[in-house]
Design a protein that fits this description.
The protein has 183 residues and is mainly α. 82% of the residues lie in helices and 0% in strands. The chain has five helices and no strands.
Length: 183
């Protein structure tokens, strides 16, 4: 009897625990930032982000759709979840493009600039950019997972880890939307 399957199971469990702990640390960081934004919103007038709230909401719907697809894909066996990830990857790229468009509009068209526009501009641009970087990291991880799968590697454990990362950026987006973008 070989101990290899048991070693694989332990390695996967260690990877999962590391991912959960890492995402928990990021969640605390984002929670602190959202708390700080809430603090400033209570203390001074908080202008509207000067970009359409419906557009920012539509951007977030791409993340929610990707999260739903990953959830449904995780319930299937075999390579189908990994093939479904290509659609999730495309939704993430759409999210990043729309985020860049809204940030460009806020900066150049609506003149929501740092430091002239105050804390609200810093919160809008800083948190939007930080979140977009996290989405980009998950996108790269999902792409690498699919690429390795195409080359014949067993990537189920990695896929579950990156799917958890996608769910994390989706939930984070909901909190940022409420804290920063809603008037």
């Amino acid at each position: 009897m070989s101990t290899r399957p048991e070693a694989d199971t332990r390695a996967e469990a260690t990877q999962w625990l590391g991912t959960v702990l890492g995402l928990s640390a990021w969640a605390m960081f984002f929670a602190a930032l959202v708390f700080a934004v809430g603090w400033y919103r209570m203390r001074e007038a908080w202008p509207s982000p000067r970009v359409p709230t419906w557009g920012l909401g539509l951007t977030g719907l791409l993340l929610v759709a990707g999260s739903a697809a990953l959830h449904l894909g995780s319930r299937r066996e075999g390579p189908r979840p990994l093939w479904a990830t290509w659609g999730v990857w495309a939704a993430g790229l759409g999210f990043l493009v729309l985020q860049a468009m809204w940030m460009h509009r806020a900066w150049w068209t609506e003149h929501l600039r740092i430091p002239e526009s105050g804390v609200s501009a810093s919160a809008f641009h800083g948190l939007t950019a930080l979140h977009a970087l996290h989405v980009l990291a998950v996108e790269v991880g999902l792409f690498a997972c699919c690429w390795r799968h195409l080359r014949g590697a067993d990537v189920r454990a990695s896929w579950r880890t990156w799917a958890l990362g996608w769910h994390f950026v989706t939930v984070t987006w909901v909190f940022l939307f409420i804290a920063v973008y809603l008037p």
